Amino acid sequence: MNSTSQAPTRALLILNPKSRSGAEADLDDGIAALRNAGMELEVFYSGGPDETENAIRQRREQLDLVIVGGGDGTISSTAGTLYDCQLPLAILPLGTANDLARSLGIGNDLQHAFAVIAANHRRAIDLGVVNDHYFFNAANMGLGVKVTEELGPEVKKRWGVFSYLKAFSAALTRAQQFKAEIVVDGERHMERSIQLAVGNGRYYGGGNIVADSARINDARLDLYSLRPQGVWELLTLAPLVRGGKHHLAQRVFNISGQRIEITTRPGAMAIHADGEPVTQTPATFTVIPDALQVVVPRDSQELLSEEDKTHGTDPQ
């Protein structure tokens, strides 16, 4: 990772103590491998977002890299601090969904994630912002919020990778339709909806794809809205939503842009970002291009190449 003429990478590894359960041996081996590769590594066990923020800010002048081990919510909670401090991020996927790891091409395997960190290849990615809250993957309202509310720790523990399907089934009975005024880069649209999502990354909600062409470094936001429909219609639509091809269905409204304003009726609606409650409507969404340097696989196919970005092309 570092030649003898280069200074070692000074890194802070932030872990939730609960993250060790089920992954202790992999974490210990991975930490040892990073140190053996020459990384100066401090391990910090955090009790919550405030402790994490303080730890990063107190060490900001002594750090070259922040490694966060956890799920999407844990990693997302560091976004604002890392952006403010302009510190690079590396991730260890220790959650249920690990959607950011998917969007970066890292995946769920801890051994592979440690190898990616050791290689220390960095790319710039975008950050989404909703009402001054930063997010990596996606923010949503309506059915998606109900799914998150159903997705408690017990459900995750009992159902594992199937927990999102279990939560979705339960949330269907609670979903209600709403009216949304959507202004995208100054263009106004009126929609009836039961689920509305705005994505910065490519994956969200346990592997669903925000949009077929979405990338976390494409300098745009991708919105989709599910029009009111029955349970059977939603189930038949599910494969398209899962694969990011919902633009093929007339029951879905799709649009992309850099600034999105949403007002809902009959009243304010809760907005969750990266699986956590953050704000409510009315909401303004923006994107910050190339906001953070993130450690990714050198051959990641989930990111636009510099050539793709320059020419505005889509690798798919």
Automatic annotation (TrEMBL):
* Pfam family of the protein (one): DAGK_cat
Q: Which cofactor does it need?
A: Mg(2+)
Q: Which GO terms describe its molecular function?
A: ATP binding; kinase activity; metal ion binding
- A single BP term in Gene Ontology: phospholipid biosynthetic process
Domain spans labelled DAGKc: 6-134
- GO CC, any one term: plasma membrane
PANTHER family given for it?
LIPID KINASE YEGS, SPHINGOSINE KINASE
Report what the protein is called: Lipid kinase, YegS/Rv2252/BmrU family
